[in-house]
Structures are given as C-alpha cells and as structure tokens.
Amino acid sequence: MPYAVTLPEFTGPLDLLLRLIERAELDITTIALASVADQYLAHVRTLEEVEPRELAEFVSMAARLILIKSRALLPRSPTTPAEAGDEDAGQLVAQLELYRRFKQAAEVLRRWQDQGRSTFVRLAPPPLLPAPAPISYRITDLLHALERRRQLQLPLAQPEPIVLAPRLTVAEVAERIRARLERTAWFDFTDLLSNDPTTEEVIVSFWAMLELLKRRAIVVEQTMLFGPILIGRGTAPIVTEPADEDEL
C-alpha cells in the first residue's frame, strides 16, 4: 500500500504530491513541509523493517523541497540573479521526472514478471567477426614438418622391472601356529601379526586359523564378544609341507 500524506492543501499518495509540484499545479509555499516530515516519521515508526533506499530517497527529496521553499520565502539579495531559484526548481523538476521514469519502468518490469515474461529476445544483431585467413600449405611444407617432428622424438626409457613384495601364504601362517603351539599351549591370535599388519596379513592369518580349526588341528576360544581370540592345540597334527600348501 503506497504511503499517503494528509495536508490542508492536499491529501493522497506522496508520489501524487511530487507530480503536482513537478507540473507546477501546486504552490510549494502553501505546503507545510514540517507536517510532511512528521507524518513520514510516524509512518516509519509503524514499520517492522525500514527500507534504507526509500528512506534515503525521501530525505533527499525533502531537502531539495526545503531549499526551494526557503528561497521562495526569503527575500532575494539584489546581487542574486532571479534565475537562481528557477534553476533550482528546474533541477528538482528534472529529478522528479527521472524518478517518475524509473518508477514507470519498475512497474512495467513487475508486470512482465507476473506474466511470466522472464526471458527477452535479443534485438541487436550478432557482432560481425572477421573471417579466418585461408590456410594453404604445400606438400613439401608438410613433409618438412613431419621430418622435424621425427627428429625431436626422444628415445624411450628402458622398462623398469616391477618388484612385488613377497605374498604371505596360508601355509606360512600355519607354520607359525605350529611353532608357537610347540612352545606354549595357548596364545593370542594377534601374536601371529606384525606390529603394523596390513589387511592382507590379517585376512590370510584368519583364513589359516579357520582352516586349521576345520581340520581340528587347533581349538579356538573367545570368552566375550569382540574379545581376544585364543588358539590352542587340537587333536589332529598341523601339516605344513609344500605338498599340502595348496590345500591350505
């Protein structure tokens, strides 16, 4: 809802008041600018959130109106040309006209947005780009370029052999289990692993333990969930000969 002022000489929106002053249909000397300012301040106090841009526009316009009215009411100096007040009034009219044009443009853009006209056709023709220069080469030029390219080729580096780390086997873990059970009746599963075991080492060691458990070569105990896994001697011997490595 647009802001409106109520004065003895005028009652209505502030935009209409400015338009009447612009057209010289309302004498600025008959308007109480203090009353306009008081009403606007009372209006601002009722707002939950003040728009700084609108407040700045009102302050700028009110300052210009006060200047014009003060020059119209105060006596002019004999040395002051009479056109000074007219020039200020002309600047004010020009600002009001510019404000009116921008407000009309904003209304048109808002109406287009409500109609879904959010895209606009390009009216200006595309820029004319200079045509690329024709490329012409002789067969001899291409042959010379290929020759230079062949001479710049670097010799291929000698292939480097890829050395893979030794893989841990189930038979090797079974041998570790057999050697430990010869020294002690029970030991922890983590004793089979290194200080910083890899995923492969943990999987192979666990696989070997399950394989020996299936053959009853060892017994396994775990007294609590996620607790330590203890390995002990079973009833069958642990065979780790190379011939049996594939079976393990």
TrEMBL record:
One example of a Gene Ontology biological process annotation: chromosome segregation
Keywords recorded for this protein, A-Z: Chromosome partition
The protein, known as: Segregation and condensation protein A
InterPro entries: ScpA, ScpA-like_C
One Pfam assignment: SMC_ScpA
Organism whose genome encodes this protein: Chloroflexus aurantiacus (strain ATCC 29366 / DSM 635 / J-10-fl)
